[in-house]
Amino acid sequence: MKKILAVLLALVLTFALVGCKEDKDPVKDDTETKTETQVETETPEDKSTIDVGIVLPTKDEPRWVQDETRFKEALAERNYSVEILFSQGSSAKEKENVEALLAQGIKVLIICPQDGAAAASAIDLAKSEGVTVISYDRLITDTDSVDYYVTFDSFSVGAAQGQYLVGKATGTGNPLYLYAGAATDNNAFIFFEGAWSVLQPKIADGTFVIKNSSEAVALQDKATLTREEMSKIIGQVTTNWDFSEAKNKSEAHLTNATAADKGKVFILAPNDGTARSIADTYLADPDVTEISITGQDAEKASIQYIIDGIQSMTVFKDVRTLVKDSIDMAVLVLEGKTPETTGTYNNGVIDVKAKQTEVVVVVQSNVKEAIIDSGYYEASEFTGLK
After folding, report:
1. What SS3 state is found at 55?
2. pTM listed for this prediction
3. Does residue 224 share a domain with residue 370?
4. Structural domain harbouring 345
5. Residue 192 neighbours by CB under 8 Å, 6+ apart
6. Do 169 and 99 share a structural domain?
7. Closest CA to 291 of 280, 303, 302
8. What is the tens place of the pLDDT at every residue in 301-354?
9. Tens digits of residue pLDDT in 274-295
10. What are phi and psi of 383, to 5 degrees?
11. Strand partners, 150
């Protein structure tokens, strides 16, 4: 009996020891797993880094989606890492994007600001961390943290738009409707300034009669406008680069216009997206018989509108060249070299060194040559092309 009890006691002790071992091992394994994970996230070699960060305004406008595509094409054969982020029309999101890119160790920031002045705080932060800042297409203002500016000749864009309208006008008393970009965009002022330099003499001599801006009428005898004077006009006719706002303003202007203010009308539209919206609105009015309307950016939808005779012209700014200039500049900076520039733009604090790209006027007669033959778009993307 004593022998049986001894055997049973030995078995109980054996199972108890096995149970303790089985309970202990998972705890040990879990501790080891957590330690390995912690070391992995804290190892410097495992931290992802980006050489060039790119921040664009929004995915809601075809122009910037187009730029993203061109950047990806230009970067396909580069040996530098790049990340492209969108700010979706928010300066706060824009700053978050810059901060996120800085956290990834970028050395060069290419940024097209949503709001030129509001972007200053974001790039000040980048500059404080030794990052080279390239302002892309739109100039960042009110800061000395901008190193370079890559742009089209914005004054020439506006002048080309104004010249197109002048070339289409005959006689006197032609109804002229003015529209502008966002008051937060420095380019909107330069575009308008360029257009005004060509239109104003023809407004002063009676060729055109302004129909939708009392501020512009009050200043129509001034060949050169101050920034404050342009602000007053743009405040009345801004589209904020927004299709819906352009449509709403157009409808309001047509509602307030008499039949005599319509007929054959001339419209200064700031870009392609707003041009299409404005054109659709004016042509829907039975008292409007014909429009001459400007644009810029050579968006696919507007090229089709030009082929169809709806939009009159666009100023073609070859984004491939602008993107290439930006990337080439960034690469030179990464290689410790100094990029070449062709001029300067004052941003309210400093004269920013700039690389400028030429522009081309596209109308129905030269669409194929300028857009298709140059390889910018494929002929198959359009209908009715001759």
Report:
1. strand
2. 0.79
3. yes
4. 52-146+319-357
5. 158, 180, 181, 230, 233, 234, 270
6. no
7. 280
8. 999 999 999 999 999 999 999 999 999 999 999 999 999 999 999 999 999 999
9. 999 999 999 999 999 999 999 9
10. -115, 150
11. 136, 355
